[in-house]
Design brief:
By secondary structure, the chain is mainly alpha-helical. It has eight helices and no strands.
Length: 192
C-alpha cells in the first residue's frame, strides 16, 4: 500500500521559501523536524555525538540541495531520506574500519615462522594490551569481550545496551588503541 502525504498550503509555501533561500523557512523546518531526526539517528547509532552529526549533515544537505526540491512532495520525505542515507553510509564506513582493525589485531596474535618474528609480535601485543588497560572501563570491557569472540549482540545483551552502541564503542576503542600503540612505539624507540 502506498501512502499519500497531504500537504497543506503552509508546507508548499515553506518549500517555496526554502527554494528561494529563506533562512527563516529553513529555521522553521529545522525547529519542526530536528528533534525527530535526532531520535531516529540516536536509535541507530546509540551515541549522542554521532546522532547530532547525522542530523546536522542532513540539514546541511537539505539546504545545499534546496533548489531541486519538488513542491508537491513533503519536506520531511526529503529530510528523512537524506538522514537515512547518511546513517547507512556511516554505519557501512565504520564496519569497514572495524574489519580492518580486526585484521590488524589478528595479525598480531597469528602464528608465525620464526622466533624473531614471534618476539616482535609479542612485544607489539604487550603494547596493545597496555593500551587496552588505559581505556575507559566500559570500552575496556567491550574490547576484552570482543577479543574473547563474543558477538556484538551477545555483548549488547550482557551489558544491556544497543548493538550499535557496542559497534561504536569498539570502533572508538580501536582508534584509541592505535593512537596509544603509536605513542608507546615512539617512547620505546627514543627510550630503549
Amino acid at each position: 500500500m502506498k501512502y499519500q502525504f497531504c500537504m497543506n498550503q503552509e508546507d508548499v509555501e515553506s518549500i517555496k521559501e526554502l527554494k528561494n533561500g529563506s533562512q527563516l523557512a529553513f529555521a522553521s523546518i529545522y525547529k519542526l523536524y530536528a528533534s525527530r531526526a535526532y531520535l531516529l539517528a540516536f536509535k541507530y547509532f546509540g551515541d549522542k555525538y554521532m546522532a547530532e552529526d547525522a542530523v546536522q549533515n542532513a540539514f546541511i544537505k537539505l539546504w545545499n540541495n534546496r533548489q531541486t526540491l519538488d513542491e508537491s512532495c513533503p519536506i520531511q520525505n526529503y529530510l528523512f531520506c537524506i538522514l537515512k542515507n547518511d546513517i547507512i553510509n556511516t554505519l557501512r564506513d565504520n564496519k569497514k574500519k572495524i574489519a580492518g582493525a580486526n585484521f590488524w589485531l589478528k595479525e598480531l596474535v597469528s602464528e608465525d615462522d620464526g622466533d624473531e618474528q614471534r618476539f616482535a609480535r609479542e612485544k607489539q601485543w604487550k603494547k596493545v594490551m597496555r593500551a587496552v588497560e588505559a581505556l575507559p572501563p566500559q570500552q575496556k570491557k567491550i574490547f576484552k569481550l570482543k577479543l574473547s569472540n563474543y558477538s556484538n549482540s551477545e555483548i549488547a545483551n550482557m551489558l544491556n545496551v544497543s548493538v550499535n552502541t557496542i559497534k561504536y564503542m569498539y570502533y572508538i576503542s580501536l582508534k584509541q588503541i592505535r593512537t596509544l600503540v603509536k605513542v608507546l612505539l615512539v617512547v620505546f624507540i627514543f627510550n630503549p
